Amino acid sequence: MTRVAACQVPIDIDDAEKTRRLVFESVAEAARLGARLVVLPELALCGSIFADATESTSRAEPADGTSVRFFAELSDAFDLVLVAGFCEVSGLDLPYNSAVVVDHGRVLAVYRKTHLWDFENELFTPGDVLPPVVETSVGAVAPLICYDLAFPEVLRSVALRGAQLIASPANWPDSDSPDVRPPEVSKAMAGAAINRVVVVVADRVGEERGRRWVGGSVICDHEGYRVAGPEFGVETVLVTDVDLDATLDKAISGRNHVFADRRTDLY
Amino acid sequence: MTRVAACQVPIDIDDAEKTRRLVFESVAEAARLGARLVVLPELALCGSIFADATESTSRAEPADGTSVRFFAELSDAFDLVLVAGFCEVSGLDLPYNSAVVVDHGRVLAVYRKTHLWDFENELFTPGDVLPPVVETSVGAVAPLICYDLAFPEVLRSVALRGAQLIASPANWPDSDSPDVRPPEVSKAMAGAAINRVVVVVADRVGEERGRRWVGGSVICDHEGYRVAGPEFGVETVLVTDVDLDATLDKAISGRNHVFADRRTDLY
């Protein structure tokens, strides 16, 4: 079994030092509890409720910039894999909404969000490459970002390429939901069950410039059961053990297999 | 709004008359409560725990046989659309596990299950055509059957072809689940949200030759929220109103659209 964590942290978009301290404390707590892989929210340090494209562009950093170096240092200090969102310089008009995978201090991969949500279309450039599947010290990890989870095509793609664990930094905007479990959680659960992969979503919590976040972080096992979270609306660190070896076996009955049963002759 | 129902009925595989009476009473109750579309379980009248292929073959009927005529009569008598499973003669070694869509007494379509579950592989021939999208008196309906729901490719296909409501006869085998809501329910919720379609699953309940069924029928609205069920393990009729007009609008924010946002350049 592998211990994994989702850090459901708030942000103060106008106080970078405070945010870094909150993130540090959250990752330290996950490490203290034994986590070997930790996921942070989307745009973990910089926030996402930017006034305009000028602000998102001004917050952008290269993949060897201050934010990613901070993630790498955390990952090195606590001996773990860290998946976290950051705002990446693109060389184009608008920056990327990216996620980095760092392992014991080494940057292994950067993924640029391919499905932008609402206002993000005015702030970011969408990526043009599907999420990579990254060999890490705990297994094969695919970073997705937030709205990507609404496209089962993406989850299928990374699972077919060998992903054992989908790590999704997220910022789920709160709404007047008629159900305490928003459909986003169902997408994580279904995606896990359908592909027999572990899904770890780290969602933002609290308020950011008047926008409230759900705080719906969740960890789903390879059968699609929630094994940690959601703990809506509170600052928390979800920590649980998942069976990454079991994700390698796609058989779900004596005669069924989640990949082989696809009717590739029909779709 | 359109009132729809899922009939969560038990079966006595060895007492056809009793089963027909249970199904009749369940559909009559749905009609009394105002349902315009009613879904029955997979293999609604004949059962599915067959001893062997000889028994499944002996129970098979053509699409104008006794079972489908019974469904047509129910649909005619109660002025509604009925989607129900039956065992269909195939002309091959093994019959099909099929679902029929009948509307006010008329047979509009027959779909043959394309993804067979476990022991079904020894009892049935898989269909070779994806579910049709059927224009009915309540809107565009796509019949899926049970394990089909585990393939988001199928839900995406019928949604792209205009389905407003996915009607899924099901027989979900019970297990020692660590969660009262099995992953199957999440697949229905996620499929509804991802495609902005209504999903109605009618699941079997009770015991059949020693096999216990979940009784996890559920109705999900076009945003993926459960609006009726599940009521695990009890004989029940789920009835609720759904907004089929809303399924025609695939926009989910001022700048997002569940179909247009797919990165068809990448997958």
UniProtKB/TrEMBL annotation, chains A, B:
<dbReference type="InterPro" id="IPR003010">
    <property type="entry name" value="C-N_Hydrolase"/>
</dbReference>
<keyword id="KW-0378">Hydrolase</keyword>
<protein>
    <submittedName>
        <fullName>Putative amidohydrolase</fullName>
    </submittedName>
</protein>
<dbReference type="GO" id="GO:0033388">
    <property type="term" value="P:putrescine biosynthetic process from arginine"/>
</dbReference>
<dbReference type="GO" id="GO:0050126">
    <property type="term" value="F:N-carbamoylputrescine amidase activity"/>
</dbReference>
<dbReference type="Pfam" id="PF00795">
    <property type="entry name" value="CN_hydrolase"/>
</dbReference>
<feature type="domain" description="CN hydrolase">
    <location>
        <begin position="2"/>
        <end position="244"/>
    </location>
</feature>
<dbReference type="InterPro" id="IPR050345">
    <property type="entry name" value="Aliph_Amidase/BUP"/>
</dbReference>
<dbReference type="InterPro" id="IPR036526">
    <property type="entry name" value="C-N_Hydrolase_sf"/>
</dbReference>
<dbReference type="InterPro" id="IPR001110">
    <property type="entry name" value="UPF0012_CS"/>
</dbReference>
<comment type="similarity">
    <text>Belongs to the carbon-nitrogen hydrolase superfamily. NIT1/NIT2 family.</text>
</comment>
